[in-house]
Amino acid sequence: MSRLVTVGAAQTGPIQRDDTRPDVVERLLALLREGADAGCDLVVFPELALTTFFPRWWVDDRAEFDHFFETEMPGRDTQPLFDEAARLGVGFHLGYAELTPEGRHHNTAIVVDGTGTIIGRYRKVHLPGHHDHQPWRAFQHLERYYFDPGEGFGVFAGWGGVLGMAICNDRRWPESYRMLGLQGCELALIGYNTPIHYAPDPSQDALQGFHNRLCLSSGAYQNGMWVVGVAKAGEEEGCDLLGESAIYAPSGEVVACCETVGDELVVAECDLDRCADFKDTLFDFGYYRRPEVYGAITGQAGVEVPADVAAALGRGGVDGEGER
Ligand code: CDT
């Protein structure tokens, strides 16, 4: 038996600051319809898919940027996406900035099913960048200023399988995938906005594509799950964003990949039963994992070089303060 889910990775090109929500939603609707024509059950849009990546700018009063946030989902401008999903019978994943009734700001993603109903919501856990204005940079990365961190990695049922989400920087952390994997995740949806230029260490700029593939592929393989990584790509307000949106099989192999840095859909038929090839063999967690020796993973955040090792090397035992 196989459980087939046809998934579209719906990369978008850049969204400029002056682009209106209705204009952006029109672009997303075009990709959703293209996905329907291609037989998709689910179309995956990127992180912060409704707006430009506004954390690249500093404003003294954060509330000045509240207009980039959605206070309801669906709201007036996003309702057409929900209506079209229900009309076509095609679900979607959407990343957006969320302002909750309690006044919390999150970098959020939802999954909507083919009836237009929200079936999953995730708020980004690993917020990258910095919280303070750093004028020496060509552009800021102020997610730690504009967003509150999410509360954890959950999974939910959809299309006959176990689904999970992570957002952009989460994909660089093995803990994200493993938290999903430990809950049986078979299909992880991950939107991203990745600037090519990394100001603290520009030697990494040329490696952005490699690191993207490395993380998504390893996360898929080491947890026996399909992973869909979807970019907002191209030159956005003078900042180059990585493309290379792709669908990764539980083997870690890429089965579909975008070629442009514009609005582009690539599609793959994902057999969720292929996950068992890995989950029940090499990565049979229940049989092989040794949580009793993994205490440091939840017991500490930073590096702690054991005192005897640090002494032998003639240095301190705590990690340094680097740029981010
Ligand atoms: N959006 C996002 O999370 N971007 C980060 C940039 C890291 S550099 C500050 C990423 O991991 O791609």
Explain what you see:
- This protein is α/β, with parallel strands linked by helices and 324 residues long.
- The chain is globular, with a radius of gyration of 20 Å.
- The strands form three sheets. Strands 5-4-3-2-1-14 form a six-stranded mixed sheet, covered by helices on one side. It has a six-stranded mixed sheet with strand order 6-7-8-9-12-13, covered by helices on one side. It has a two-stranded antiparallel sheet with strand order 10-11.
- It has helices at 21-37, 79-88, 143-146, 174-181, 208-223, 276-279, 285-288, 295-299, 307-313; strands at residues 4-11, 42-44, 91-99, 105-112, 118-123, 155-158, 161-167, 187-192, 226-231, 234-236, 239-241, 246-248, 254-257, 264-271.
- The protein has nine helices and 14 strands.
- Residues 47, 128-129, 141, 168-169, 172, 192-194, 198 line the site of 4-methylsulfanyl-2-ureido-butyric acid.
Strand order of the largest sheet: 5-4-3-2-1-14
Name the bound molecules. 4-methylsulfanyl-2-ureido-butyric acid
Largest sheet features: 6 strands, mixed
Radius of gyration: 20 Å
Q: How much is the average pLDDT?
A: 97
- SS-based class: alpha/beta
Order of helices and strands: EHEHEEEHEEHEHEEEEEEHHHH
Distance between the termini: 47 Å
Instruction: Provide a count of the helices.
Output: 9
Report the helical percentage: 10-25%
The proportion of strand residues reads 15-25%
Shape: globular
> Using DSSP, what is the number of strands?
14
Multimeric state: single chain
- Sequence stretches where pLDDT stays below 50 over 5 or more residues: none
